[in-house]
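Example with several molecule types.
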Amino acid sequence: MSYFDAASAVPLHPVARQALHASLDEGWADPARLYREGRRARMLLDAAREAAAEAVGCRADELVFTASGTRAVHSGVAGALAGRRRVGRHLIVSAVEHSSVLHAAEVHEADGGAVSRVAVDRAGAVTAEGYAAALRSDTALACLQSANHEVGTVQPVAEVAEVCRAAGVPLLVDAAQSLGWGPVDGDWSLLAASAHKWGGPSGVGLLVVRKGVRFAAQGPVDERESGRAAGFENIPAIVAAAASLRAVRAEAAEEAVRLRELTERIRARVAGAVPDVEVVGDPGRRLPGIVTFSCLYVDGEALLHELDRAGFSVSSGSSCTSSTLTPSHVLKAMGVLSEGNVRVSLPMGAAQEDVERFLDVLPGAVAGVREKLGAPSPAPVTAAGADVLVVDSLGKRCPIPVIELAKVIGDVPVGGTVRVLSDDEAARLDIPAWCEMRGQEYVGEEPADRGVAYVVRRLA
Amino acid sequence: MSYFDAASAVPLHPVARQALHASLDEGWADPARLYREGRRARMLLDAAREAAAEAVGCRADELVFTASGTRAVHSGVAGALAGRRRVGRHLIVSAVEHSSVLHAAEVHEADGGAVSRVAVDRAGAVTAEGYAAALRSDTALACLQSANHEVGTVQPVAEVAEVCRAAGVPLLVDAAQSLGWGPVDGDWSLLAASAHKWGGPSGVGLLVVRKGVRFAAQGPVDERESGRAAGFENIPAIVAAAASLRAVRAEAAEEAVRLRELTERIRARVAGAVPDVEVVGDPGRRLPGIVTFSCLYVDGEALLHELDRAGFSVSSGSSCTSSTLTPSHVLKAMGVLSEGNVRVSLPMGAAQEDVERFLDVLPGAVAGVREKLGAPSPAPVTAAGADVLVVDSLGKRCPIPVIELAKVIGDVPVGGTVRVLSDDEAARLDIPAWCEMRGQEYVGEEPADRGVAYVVRRLA
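Resulting structure tokens for the full complex:
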């Protein structure tokens, strides 16, 4: 088996495992107690906090451990918003944040707060100008990820932090995807991260609040973790998390070069060996281990299943692989194709031969799925027909509407239009993306009796 | 070292350790993923949920895992209150709940909700009548612990649940102290518990919401744990928690008999061997392993320090051992002495010889602390003096005000009064408790220029 879903979780790092085992015996007691077992637990907790703070580049008393990265984000956003409530209730996030940030923003909105979502370019990156334009006199907080979890694009955190700083607005950075690779540059105010992304155990997140940042923890709290993370501290896991962060950092520079070379190879080979594919995300400013691409006329779930059978574990932002049946909000915000989407995220230590084997297997897996779905051949036959064709794809799920569109486009003359009727949310994203890939004109959408009519004009 | 603070946390059970190690390799991946590693993680999570549900006595789909017992309580209280918001915003708790419940109640109050706190008797127990009297037409939720964490008193959960059920009000049971010993009887609606109390790892709590109970999770949520506990599941720890719950349950009946015999011995021997001591909590309806007593004229922190030096780890509800300098709210609600307070909570497997050694060491440790503080001898000399004596204990901390009172009570004639000036919060509790123990009359408190004057009339 080759596990290529490091952006989701990675197995426990050997150093984390060792630290966990050692501290199970020493760190189970309540660190608030004065007796021997409590003092030992307290010492372990303090040492882990020092180590984690050094890796983040902050003071130990600015960092608390939480029960997960999600919890760190939720507590950080709520606390920072409450701390600046007098300034106002406006929150800025990027359109491609992790769902934990977006969920926190939705709760804020439901509670009467205002939220601006900063758009990204086709590579998935925000700009400092985008944040500058979103800032208002009542902005309480801005949030930006250090790098995107689905496409790997690195965000201009330092520039955005500068713009926010100039406006007196704190910036919360979700560093979940990047903290294992290095500290986050720039003058940010709050930072959240998650240990199981860097080889630490599940159940540990960290939240950093810089001195001087107004912060008011929300919900019930207790005396633990400076009143910012209620509940008994999970010290063995915290110790393991800090130890593995230090360990992966020691390997990071060298491993980044190696993984980048492997993902470069995937970017190049996929584009060459798989027809009708779009490699997405920034080719240069990106995390070392992530590469994402979308395949026309492919059902993401079927492709993942084929790859799993061949021994490869990857993830997908396609709508058909999610329980909500909507495509990834990241791909949507980027305006790229979401069907047949595959995210390969290599863990540290991924073997080159496994990557080669993946590249050998992929074209056949894609072709197999396309064949089953009856996808059009890469070069559809051109044929003259009626000026307007209507394709009824109602009740059919991604990627069928796009496949049916591709099959008939040659049946209308150049200048003629195809109206695709669809009630699948993914079509709104994938039909324009198909037009861009195919050099056809996306005219727009119109309401229909059922679903929506997506109108495409044949140009070639 | 003898660790006698099981009510706070216990070391990892060997079964938990084994399960943890095994599942570190199998349970690290995201259980929401469709690939092999994800499916394995999902299977482990499902099996752990089944096992935990069986131990609780509920359906698997009624139980979610949380990041701690505290988190289970906070989420449970908030979700149940929100689910019945249309009924009203009145919450009932007992006065002796764990701080996590009381903190949740405080947040509800700060947010405009109403809270009733049901009083307890001198043994720390509520009555069903107390809950019945507190119920109102706008009561959204009632909370009651299964057993008290500081004195071990078992609460009449089934009776209270019946009263609540008759009024259509859900009852949330904090079962943190008792779940290792057995399921909670009665027709409760929600239940919270914490794995590190039964030998599971830190970082795992559980929240049960019975089918049909209105529940609306508060704050940002995600698709995990039925939308009731956001953040990546900590599966290795969850597996270990479920395994150890099953393991301790298998030993519970036999171990309960053995520990009860040991704590009976402590109850009897302490009362006999230590002068001026009050053993608190219900002598019969109590958890097997907990016994609590308070020693007049003793500084709790100094006593804990002496016991730690002698190799015993115990805790205390005395004000001088807490960061807030207020005595335990439990002892306060019971109206018992808080000074020189010691809670012995034996872990399963506690050795009889360690308990014997503790009983050998304790009288000397108490006497040593009393000597250092200049405590009065057990039988103070009676002497006639002025009718009213004023003792200035301002700026002095527990147990000094009581020691100074005891030293002068013999200097006023029978019928005369002593006014103790004190600004220590513990005096409000400990001076009346001393009067009761000594057969003197506590007249009441009066405001003074600084602090409060506690007035005591000599009767004997």
